[in-house]
Specification:
Number of strands: 0
Bound molecules: fe (ii) ion
Radius of gyration: 25 Å
CATH class of the largest domain: Mainly Alpha
CATH architecture of the largest domain: Orthogonal Bundle
Oligomer: single chain
Number of helices: 17
Largest sheet: none
Shape: elongated
């Protein structure tokens, strides 16, 4: 399979540009198989296009294409070599049928390795997700104002971007819709009750429990029973369990820092996250909340291979 620098070289030859970021993303050592997963190509293409532009997205598809071609050329080469070895050499005494069986089982296991690498697995269900216009319309009709809708859309885009960058098998629909609807309750109030009120509205709208859970639990990144008591909210355990929930909360914080102009770029928001949340009470709230927010940041960055 072409090494990253070979991809870059081919890219320069074909397009005049190296598209280094694209090839580095796909060949990122710790996430290689996930990033070559063809069932994630549409999601990755969207993410790359929004970050680096249409030419970069095209280069991503070219990269996967070249890898598939290379892996299968290599596969045929190995088969030919093994067939040659088996038809003469020190296995001359072995019956033809047995040699063929050896060849077929070797080919099978090599082929399975290739298919696994590109994410082709028996019975796998492909689920693509993108923010639906009808969902945005639901927010508008519920009375969420234009600024808050813009915030919800930004949180959904950021959460999906982060989710894709982890390369993990996550529920993108839950992340995208959970993020989009997390502040639905702001149509009623911007006070701390907007989580609970939003979840109630979500239930009335027929949203799945996993989504209304995110809406209810997003306040201060998932309160304990003791904190809920102190804040006068219905007493229960609001703590977050899944990566899907944590990614929405992390994206919500990042979007606040970015939209408020505390940082100049999205990258800077992640790099200076700990420093900003620790220094500014507006974002870190209090010690216990800050600790949670920093915990999610570290966990998710580690999942992206940035620990
Ligand atoms: Fe909120
Ligand atoms: Fe929010």
């Amino acid at each position: 399979m072409p090494k990253t620098d070979v991809h870059i070289e081919a890219s320069v030859k074909k397009t005049g540009k190296p598209h280094q970021a694209v090839h580095a993303f796909v060949d990122f050592e710790k996430k290689k198989p996930e990033r070559h997963d063809i069932t994630k190509m549409v999601d990755y293409t969207r993410m790359i296009e929004s970050k680096y532009g249409a030419e970069a997205a095209q280069e991503f598809v070219q990269h996967i294409h070249d890898d598939i071609q290379c892996k299968f050329k290599d596969f045929i080469g190995t088969l030919k070599k093994r067939a040659g070895e088996l038809s003469n050499g020190d296995t001359a005494q072995v019956p033809v049928g047995s040699k063929l069986n050896t060849l077929v089982s070797e080919a099978e296991s090599k082929l399975k390795g290739i298919l696994d690498y590109f994410g082709v697995v028996e019975g796998k269900n492909v689920r693509l997700y993108r923010v639906a216009d009808e969902d945005v319309e639901l927010l508008r009709r519920a009375g969420v104002n234009a600024d808050d809708i813009q915030h919800c859309l930004a949180v959904a885009a950021k959460a999906l971007e982060i989710a894709h960058r982890t390369g993990a098998a996550l529920d993108f629909e839950l992340i995208g819709r959970g993020a989009l609807f997390h502040d639905l309750g702001k149509s009623k109030t911007h006070a701390i009750e907007h989580g609970r009120l939003g979840a109630e509205m979500g239930k009335d709208l027929g949203l799945p429990t996993a989504i209304t859970d995110i809406m209810e639990k997003h306040i201060r990144g998932g309160l304990t029973e003791a904190e809920a008591t102190e804040l006068g909210l219905p007493v229960k355990d609001y703590r977050l369990k899944s990566f899907e929930e944590k990614i929405v909360i992390y994206a919500d914080r990042l979007v606040d820092i970015i939209m408020d102009g505390v940082v100049k770029t999205d990258e800077e928001a992640e790099q200076r996250y700990e420093e900003i949340l620790t220094a500014q009470i507006k974002y870190g709230k209090n010690d216990i909340t800050l600790k949670r927010y920093l915990g999610y940041h570290r966990e998710i960055q580690a999942l992206m291979g940035n620990s």
